[in-house]
């Protein structure tokens, strides 16, 4: 080491502190080794009594601390960067925008295995024919067509990565057979990106209808642009995605597709795999840890040409990224609700801009944020107003529940419609967004109800297995056999959940199969895929389930949808409640009549004359959403204003309140309230006590994002100095989606 010019490394470390850390290069490193320390590699360092893995941000010969006080790092863990410039920039943006320490953001962007010192970039398995293998001809494989395919693919190519072989429909066991016969061999090597002249398609794309074609033609590739594809359910948005991706692949680029929950929509991934002959990889939290590193690496190395993933995939490394697609962009799951509270959709926009590529946001029910941007012409607004594939839009009927005899919440008229549907040999879907048997267990003689010990909430009664369950904190209890307050032995289950609806419907339609679809019944990994298969076989059956059924499924035989309860959304205290209700109704309704047979949707409500509900049903989501935008504009709520929530919770209510009172005071000093900036609170959260903690919040609203970022930065700094901030759990939620 040159002592006059020691090498100073600036690192981002995964600690809760909002700063960088400086270290010297490892003491025993030669100048050549020091030169090899390049930003984006992982470095192992001492940190107090711990050893941490951080990311090298920059290298210099000066430090902001006295150099003699800096400790040397232990070692560099990588020979080449694991975080490249564009991901680094995205992490830096996210850290600043969401007020989160950069080191933690960067670690979140890496697969878990690389967060530890012993994790390393994997190598890729390649296959090629042996000399014996090359000498054969297809006659030799007459009786084993799978081996023949594998042999043919290998014969006409340089060594191929296993992922690329899978994409070409080559069976892994066939490769193993060839290997056994010494006709093929495999070896490990650093992954190489595929040559650009790849065959991209596996099947001929559909002919687009005019609206789809117009949407595709509007997209400018190779340049930033945000496109909102607002297409009614079943209008063929996916086909537009597929054809846009094909263009990008043909230009030798990669595509990133973000979807809400992969496990719930196995059909989506299947459609991509059917269409494309290129390697596709998945990134979501259900991929096992080891496989996640491999999948991540195949994107990183350029092997995978398409990445389909959930919100975390917005950080996926794609060296040749050419387009980002966010499907069902309105979906709440794109917002992480803990830790780094980021919106993957919003980060996707930032990423597309930094990479200068197009971003496609698709939904039948766009979020008001995106719709507003489209109406303001900040986004290109593409609309698909017709269903593709000759399917008609379903007829929506509002059913006035005040005049209806009912069976556990399901109206007689709905029962009759279900009966007729099953008689015709078709499938019906009953949507009830509450799992369990009944939302409460009460004593009708004294008014007692089963409440959670730890939350301001009632416990839900479940029947299979029988238990009381708090859906907010997870607490469980056995249902009492008599009222604990007045000893009345007859307790009543009040209201309905999916289990009760299932029981009622099974009793009424005992000739038919009734399938319950909720978090409890769909725990097994492939449950949704199996259900999809069963439904596609087309036997008449009745589905009862929660919002799991609302997500992008394509079940051609479902012709009737019954929405049991829309009133919850109308009465919600969250200012987004009504928007969510509208999205949910339209998404669930959209499952009806997606093929040749027309669909009907029955929407049950006790408030059938609610103006927004009526508008939703008679005019559709677009006009409904515009009306809500009007309301938001008049009371200056998002998207007309930029919000942040400072949340605090503590076992002692006064501590949480005191911290927020202090925060409000600091904020007012930093930025006095004005029409540009306002503070509300501390106010109790909707559920004031949850999981044995009292919860309060301070609402901050700004006309300008920049003011918000600056204020929050100073506020966090000041709060970190408050003794109380160590004893209270607090967090900042920028652009909160859930106000609870
Ligand atoms: N141009 C086309 N010609 C024929 N069929 C098409 C065309 N485009 C799409 N389809 C078919 O229409 C059906 C619905 O399309 P798709 O699932 O893409 O709709 P979507 O807009 O994504 O719906 P949702 O928002 O409800 O998920 C599919 O079976 C699809 O194969
Ligand atoms: Zn609870």
Automatic annotation (TrEMBL):
One of its GO terms (biological process) is DNA recombination. Residues 218-384 form the Helicase ATP-binding domain. Residues 482-632 form the Helicase C-terminal domain. Zn(2+) 2 binds at residues 452, 455, 470, 473. InterPro entries: DEAD/DEAH_box_helicase_dom, Helicase_ATP-bd, Helicase_C-like, P-loop_NTPase, PriA, PriA_3primeBD, PriA_3primeBD_sf, PriA_C. Keywords: ATP-binding, DNA replication, DNA-binding, Helicase, Hydrolase, Isomerase, Metal-binding, Nucleotide-binding, Primosome, Zinc. GO terms for cellular component: primosome complex. The keyword Zinc applies. Binds 2 zinc ions per subunit. Its cofactor is Zn(2+). Pfam families: DEAD, Helicase_C, PriA_3primeBD, PriA_C, WHD_PriA, Zn_ribbon_PriA. GO terms for molecular function: 3'-5' DNA helicase activity; ATP binding; DNA binding; hydrolase activity; zinc ion binding. Initiates the restart of stalled replication forks, which reloads the replicative helicase on sites other than the origin of replication. Recognizes and binds to abandoned replication forks and remodels them to uncover a helicase loading site. Promotes assembly of the primosome at these replication forks. Component of the replication restart primosome. This is Replication restart protein PriA. It comes from Marinagarivorans cellulosilyticus.
């Amino acid at each position: 080491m040159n002592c006059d010019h020691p090498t100073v490394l600036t690192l981002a470390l995964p600690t809760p502190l909002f700063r960088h850390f400086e270290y010297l290069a490892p003491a025993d490193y030669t100048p050549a080794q020091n030169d090899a320390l390049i930003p984006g590699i992982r470095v192992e360092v001492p940190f107090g009594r711990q050893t941490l893995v951080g990311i090298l941000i920059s290298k210099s010969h000066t430090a902001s601390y006295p150099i003699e006080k800096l400790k040397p790092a232990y070692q560099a863990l990588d020979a080449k960067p694991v975080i490249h410039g564009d991901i680094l920039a995205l992490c830096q943006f996210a850290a600043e925008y969401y007020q989160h320490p950069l080191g933690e953001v960067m670690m979140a962007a890496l697969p878990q295995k690389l967060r530890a010192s012993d994790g390393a970039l994997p190598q890729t398995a390649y296959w090629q024919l042996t000399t014996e293998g090359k000498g054969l001809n297809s006659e030799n494989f007459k009786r084993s067509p799978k081996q023949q395919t594998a042999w043919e693919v290998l014969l006409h190519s340089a060594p191929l990565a296993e992922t690329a072989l899978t994409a070409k429909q080559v069976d892994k066991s066939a490769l193993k057979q060839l290997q056994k016969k010494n006709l093929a061999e495999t070896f490990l090597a650093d992954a190489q990106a595929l040559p650009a002249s790849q065959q991209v398609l596996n099947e001929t794309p559909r002919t687009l209808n005019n609206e789809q074609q117009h949407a595709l033609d509007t997209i400018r590739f190779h340049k930033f642009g945000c496109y909102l594809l607002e297409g009614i359910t079943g209008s063929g948005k996916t086909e537009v995605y597929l054809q846009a991706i094909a263009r990008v692949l043909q230009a030798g680029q990669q595509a990133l597709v973000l979807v809400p929950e992969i496990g719930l929509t196995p059909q989506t991934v299947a459609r991509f795999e059917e269409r494309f002959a290129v390697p596709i990889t998945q990134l979501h939290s259900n991929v096992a840890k080891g496989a996640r590193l491999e999948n991540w690496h195949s994107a990183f190395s350029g092997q995978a040409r398409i990445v389909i993933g959930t919100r975390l995939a917005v950080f996926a490394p794609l060296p040749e990224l050419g387009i980002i697609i966010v499907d069902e962009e309105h979906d709440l799951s794109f917002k992480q609700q803990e830790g780094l509270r980021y919106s993957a959709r919003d980060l996707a926009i930032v990423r597309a801009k930094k990479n200068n590529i197009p971003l496609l946001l698709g939904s039948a029910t766009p979020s008001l944020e995106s719709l507003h941007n489209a109406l303001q012409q900040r986004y290109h607004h593409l609309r698909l107003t017709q269903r593709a594939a000759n399917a008609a839009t379903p007829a929506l009927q509002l059913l006035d529940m005040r005049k209806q005899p009912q069976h556990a919440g399901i109206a007689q008229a709905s029962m009759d419609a279900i009966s007729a549907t099953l008689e015709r040999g078709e499938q019906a879907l009953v949507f009830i967004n509450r799992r369990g048997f009944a939302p409460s267990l009460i004593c009708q003689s004294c008014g007692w109800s089963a409440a959670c010990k730890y939350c301001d909430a009632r416990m839900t009664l479940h029947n299979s297995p029988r238990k009381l369950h708090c859906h907010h904190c997870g607490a469980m209890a056995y249902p009492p056999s008599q009222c604990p307050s007045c000893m009345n032995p007859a307790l009543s289950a009040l209201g309905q959940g999916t289990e009760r609806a299932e029981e009622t419907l099974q009793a009424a339609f005992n000739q038919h199969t009734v399938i319950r679809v909720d978090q409890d019944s769909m725990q097994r990994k492939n449950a949704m895929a199996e259900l999809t298969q069963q439904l596609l076989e087309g036997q008449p059956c009745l589905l009862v389930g929660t919002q799991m059924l609302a997500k992008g499924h394509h079940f051609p035989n479902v012709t009737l949808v019954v929405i049991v309860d829309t009133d919850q959304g109308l009465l919600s205290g969250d200012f987004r409640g009504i928007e969510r209700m509208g999205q949910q109704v339209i998404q669930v309704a959209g499952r009806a009549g997606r093929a040749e047979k027309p669909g009907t949707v029955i929407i049950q409500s006790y408030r059938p004359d609610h103006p927004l509900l009526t508008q939703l049903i008679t005019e559709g989501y677009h006009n409904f959403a515009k009306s809500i935008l009007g309301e938001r504009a008049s009371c200056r709520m998002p998207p007309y204003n930029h919000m942040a929530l400072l949340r605090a919770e503590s076992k002692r209510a006064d501590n949480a309140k005191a911290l927020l009172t202090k925060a409000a005071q600091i904020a007012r000093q930093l930025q006095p309230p004005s029409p540009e900036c306002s503070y509300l609170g501390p106010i109790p959260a909707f559920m004031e006590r949850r999981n044995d903690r009292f919860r309060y919040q301070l609402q901050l609203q700004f006309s300008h994002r920049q003011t918000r970022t600056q204020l929050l930065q100073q506020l966090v700094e000041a709060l970190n100095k408050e003794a109380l901030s160590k004893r209270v759990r607090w967090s900042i939620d920028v652009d909160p989606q859930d106000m609870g």
